[in-house]
Amino acid sequence: MSSLDIFLLVMVDLGVSTPYDLRERAGLSPGATIPALRRLQSRGYIKAGQTGSRGRTQYSATPKGKSHLQEHRDEHLGRVPDDVDGILRLAALFNARDRVGLRRFMQKAAARRKKSAKMHLSQAEHLSFPLEQTPADRYRWMKQRLDAAREMAEATALARLVKEINSKSR
To answer: Which long-range contacts (CB under 8 A, 24 or more apart) does 54-62 make?
Structure first.
């Protein structure tokens, strides 16, 4: 399951039950949530209820979905997604009392982003700007440097979040 699927399943279980509610409460676009809700429904984790007066379908977690969350919580929260949105979705699912687990998760995520940034930078440093090459070569050269810079900025931001979490937990 993707981090979005897990996040949506938890949110639906907590009563945030329509794509509109998900947009208002969590900032998720209906374009992303509706296909994910359909996936969860096809797997039997949620069920669609009545469509409201404004055409909004309400979803609720099924017993299968609730048991999946209980049985696989540690597994889902133990893996760090490759994208920052996925990291933040899973980080948001940590229990408010589990700040140690949240800090560890965020530290692991920050370290992975930093490692990935260094790898991209290492790959890019071996190349000089391919002025005489094709546009595709120049694009690849610029993209590798931009990816490395973005990942380093994300790693730094995640590390700052860890510091904020640490300061709030005292």
So the answer is: 54/20, 56/18, 56/19, 56/20, 57/18, 57/19, 58/17, 58/18, 59/12, 59/17, 59/18, 60/12, 60/17, 61/9, 61/12, 61/13
What total number of domains does the chain contain?
2
pLDDT band at 72 (very low <50, low <70, confident <90, very high): very high
Structure tokens at 170: 């005292």
Model confidence, pTM: 0.83
18 and 61 assigned to the same domain? yes
- Per-residue pLDDT tens for 118-137? 888 887 777 677 777 889 98
Domain with 121 in it? 99-168
